[in-house]
Amino acid sequence: MIYADNNASTALAPEVLEAMLPFFGSSFGNPSSAHALGADAAKAVEKAREQVAASLGAKPSEIFFNSGGTEGDNQALRGALWANPKKRHMIVSAVEHSAVRNCAAHLKALGYTVSVIPVDADGNLNEADLFKALRPDTCLVSLMWANNETGVLFPVERLAREVKQRQPGLLFHTDAVQAFGKVPIDLSQGAIDLLSLSGHKFKAPKGVGMLFVRRGVRIEPLIMGGSQEEGMRAGTLNVPGIVGLGAACALAKRQLPDMQNRVKALRDDLEKELLARVPDARVNGAKAHRVPNTSNISFKGIEGEALVTALSTEGICVSTGSACHKGVTNPSPVLMAMQMPKESALGAVRFSFGHGNSPEELATIVKILPGAVAKLRAVTTRVA
Ligand code: PLP
């Protein structure tokens, strides 16, 4: 099996599992309990908070554990608006993950005003449109750090500074789910107020993540109940998951050079080899700054879904951003926002590498893929 779908999820790292195991066994206490077993769990949670904070250049008191990226994004958007009832406008980009996109659409249906900022054909944000959209009642700007489908990076640190210079008092959120572990993140100096992460994108388990809330920034909780996480996220803490998140953050920081050098070289080689061997293929977002591991490639004349299935039968795991609904395949909203013809968007496949991928695996993909594309093209032509 060749796994090149690391933007969908990653394998748990052995050292992360090892760190978690005691908390599935003898160290099962509730961190809110006053006895020794509770204290053990609470100590482990605070150690994880320190590890997460250190990996982001944040303070431990700015880290709020939750269930992952979707929850963090929802709390950032809804929690910011609820905390600032007089400000009813927010700004997002046209290529946000559905966790932001659909939450923003819901808020719009509830009566808030939402500006959606377009991107160009390479996936870069139209900054002039962003600045034009700012208003005195803008509560929040939410722009993702790295796109999950194309890997295109938005310059969020600079944009956070610039929107705040133009419109002081607004909050800036970034969905950094696909950026963490791939590009350096240092929140110590910046203007980013809120940042969401998801553990399963960097070798922690699924169902755990965190929201960074800069000290002094006030947003409302999504989930109310007990006083866990200073009332910002009620519910008994997922101690094993949180311990895993801390270990995975420390590991991701250590492995960043491997991601930026070796993994990037694999991704770059894939693009070079495939473009040389497969006619009518194009890399989406190629001219933009991208994370080191992601390649989104359109193959003219075929459906990406069909290629994903064909590669899967050869033991190669990749994915598409298109979604099948009632037998009709819809193109990825991200690629459509990049003004791509529908046919190219439907023909796109995402390769996302990780630390576990090798040059031998790359060679296998490069060997198998041209034939798989040619076979699908022959079938498509016959049917047409
Ligand atoms: N944001 C981005 C950019 C993502 O890629 C994902 C997951 O694919 C999410 C948010 C959602 O994260 P989670 O799976 O933890 O809910």
Task: Give a quick rundown of the structure.
With 384 residues, this protein is an alpha/beta fold. It has helices at 14-20, 36-56, 69-83, 98-109, 127-133, 156-166, 239-277, 304-313, 333-337, 342-346, 359-383; strands spanning 2-3, 63-66, 89-93, 113-117, 138-142, 171-175, 194-198, 209-213, 281-283, 294-299, 316-317, 323-325, 328-330, 348-352.
Structural class: alpha/beta
Count of β-strands? 14
Please give the alpha-carbon distance between the first and last residues.
33 Å
Shape: globular
- Contiguous uncertain segments of 5+ residues: none
The number of helical segments is: 11
The amount of beta strand, in percent, is: 15-25%
Question: What integer is the average pLDDT?
Answer: 96
**How large, in whole angstroms, is the Cα Rg?**
21 Å
What ligands are attached or bound here? pyridoxal-5'-phosphate
* Strand order, sheet with most strands: 2-8-7-6-5-3-4
Helix content: 40-55%
Descriptive account of the structure:
The chain has 384 residues and is an alpha/beta fold. The chain is built from eleven helices and 14 strands. The strands form four sheets. It has a seven-stranded mixed beta sheet with strand order 2-8-7-6-5-3-4, sandwiched between helices. The protein has a three-stranded antiparallel beta sheet with strand order 9-10-14. It has a two-stranded parallel ribbon with strand order 1-11. The chain is globular and about 70 Å long. The site of pyridoxal-5'-phosphate has 13 residues, from helix 3.
